[in-house]
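Worked example

This section walks through a single chain of length 508. The input is the sequence exactly as stored; nothing has been trimmed or padded.
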Amino acid sequence: MKKRAKQISKIKNSKINILEGTSGMKQKSLGLNAVLNGIKQCCSIIFPLITFPYISRVLGNDGYGKYSFSYSVTNYFILLAALGIYTYAIREGAKVRDDQKEVDKFCSQVFSINVCSAAVSLLLLSIMVFCLPKFSGYKAYIFIQSTAIIMAVLGTDWVNGIFEDYFYITVRYIAVQCVCLIAMFVFVRKPEDIIPYCIISVLATNGGNLINVFYVRKYAKIRFTFDMDFKRHLAPLLILFVNSIAISIYVNSDITMLGFFESDAQVGVYSFASKIYNLLKQLINAVIVVSVPRIAYIIKNKPLEYKTFLNRIFSALNIALLPIVVGMFFMSDSMILIAGGEQYIAGDAALKVLSVATLFAIYASLFTNCVLIVNRQEKLCLKATVISAIVNVGLNFVLMPTLGMIGAAITTVIAELVNCVMQMHFSKPFFDWRTLELKPIVSCICGSAFIGIICLLCNSFFHSSLMKMACAVAFSALVYVMTLIVMRNPYAVAAVDVIKKKMRKSNG
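Given that input, the structure is written out below as tokens.
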């Protein structure tokens, strides 16, 4: 009996140890963290969907162009100040979080490095703005947006990540977003309200960091120190920094460079089309994001199931991706008119081109996150991103002067294609993409072809953009689902079986 009691006690203690660290700090539930992070991700999509149509209409293409150009420029210096610290601090800080003395030392060192990088970033930004005539009309917008650098440094939000305080992060994010949403409707009401919008957008993104100045004291005593231990921190920080810069160039260079070749109105029109493209891309990419933790677990604990699970992710992704790409291509004009109005309709052709880029971007994201990252191949990802960024910038110089925003869109497609091909090539040692199931892909392609036909018919029979969109979405969804069922798409069939079982249960 005593032996049995000892075993039970041991099992209980092991469960407690899972929940508690060596310092007795209660660990956060991974499931709860996933839910909270999911809520935050959903809100990060919902809030722009609310604000974007309103702002684009109120500011107009000229005002929105001024904001977009100044933000794209400032963003590079925000990244320089960030120096890859957020990712690095969470990764390394989590290793020592049970040792309070070591936590205080680590956080103070990282904070001090961040102060230095922020000072350099603000100095370089000031020199650029005052020395280059191009930025004379954007000084106020750029300097307002640059306050995000100071807020980020003081807020040390990475401390919350180290201690997995996702409840606070999520609640704070939603609260700040709601306040800023109300403020936007109150203070941004005419085309001249660019400065109020700049202030509100900065507060929406970084306002929570002001609260954080006091909140993080519960976790660490952070102070500036000259003992920054560059030998330990600098090399990994630089790798992460280069990656973030490459991604930023890859994503934002078209808007920044377009600002040098075209008017603010043209920048605004293209930025609008690009915003729709990025929102839909973010929406589809959510399928990949939520799959990464599960894939990481499978690789470690059930490696034989990895290929099967990846096949499922690919098939599920295509169900959402292909119809959205087709719909975006054929309904681009209606989407623009509904969201922004006639003033942005010139971006119709650019959005059509960008819809093609969505296909390559999502597949590249799949290779990156579900194959390379989970297999610890970050350097290969960096290589692909850097090459794609170089291609993007180089082609922008060639195509933008003659083709304008269309050239920017074409460049994005080519850069996304290059990135996709490279990520796919680097993934070969870890997953053979020739083993992918063809039947689910064929059913999605056929269903998407019907969607294209429906969209063309709606464009022909209806004049109202809202009516076109409503009918296209309704009929497309119906026909697409029916096509998947008829062609025995395994996910569609499984969904039907689940519905049938629930109906049987409800009926008795």
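What to look for: The two ends are 48 Å apart (CA to CA).
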